[in-house]
Specification:
The protein is mainly α and 372 residues long. The protein contains 13 helices and 6 strands. The chain folds into 2 domains: 19-38 and 288-371, no CATH class; 50-286, no CATH class. 62% of the residues lie in helices and 4% in strands. The protein is globular and about 65 Å long. It comes from Chitinophaga sancti.
Amino acid sequence: MQAANQRFLPLDVFRGLTICFMIIVNTPGTNDIFAPLEHAAWHGFTPTDLVFPSFLFAVGNAMSFSMRKYYDLDNATVLSKIFKRTLLIFLLGFIMYWLPFVHHTDDGSLAFNSISNTRIMGVLQRIALCYCFASLMIRFLPQKAVWIISGLLLVGYWIIMRFAGDAADPYGFSTNAAVHFDKLILGENHMYHDKGTISEPEGLLSTLPAIVNVVIGYYAGLYIQKRRPNTLSTLIRVGCFFIILATFWNTNFPINKKLWTSTFVLLTAGLDLLILTLLLYIIDVQEKTAWTGFFTTFGKNPLFLYLLSEVMVIFLFFFTIGNESVYAWINNHFFQPLAPGKAGSLLFAITYMLFCWCVGKFLDKKRIYVRV
């Protein structure tokens, strides 16, 4: 992350919007939530499905500023910086899933969480890998080659998913090539477990098309920095083109967040370009900036505030009051009596997001910006 005078306000606001919404959708009080705040069950798309790809798009935006520092550095130094950052982000994600390193047993004692059963992949791990591969391509290849490889990643992933999965249902939950590959390489004990099912929504194979979200975010950031007269119209045209292409391709390769299909990449990148265009119009053209401060608080410390929100939830679930977790106790004794059902669940999420914002505001006032 760069100093504020080295990046554009709309990009900071975009990052802040992404983190803000991510915290809200990740921390509902109960499983009884409003439909737009749920992920699509399998094929399909909801507003919540836009959050993670927008995070990757924002990573690309930030790279369009940070990688300028690499222009005058030799390749060995640049590679060292890229790999160190990749490893650090990946380890942060891995350790987060290992927390709190112990769990409650049936007899009330604590037992160590074996690393042999710890999930390997996850949100930060995917961010780390996408950042790494996108950075390497952008550093060592001409722009045309980067776009060609990005296209090959999308088409190649489609071909693999179409022909390497079970012939009867190549895009099914347990019959697709991505889950087969993750079980083979990662092993079931290191994958995501939910209600008796085993999958990996941030798996290895499905990370390949996710790299393209970062690439598109990077070149969008570069293009915006040039301040051309037709910037907004170009972003709109490209965004609409991606969305239309995704819509037509959806008939053969369904839009699916958990599989991170190529159509999902195009749809989300297109929407992100339109959202960013709207922010550019409001902030740069209309010069309406009074409202932006709330979101730039998140945008200035995005990774730290995301980690804070996730780690706190882990410990709120770990500690108990009576027979329920602190997380559930707070929701059941404060928010559900105040607003039963979905409304209370949303109120819990918004309150939690505002707490994280307060931490971010404190850090901003102290000019503390956590860099990875």
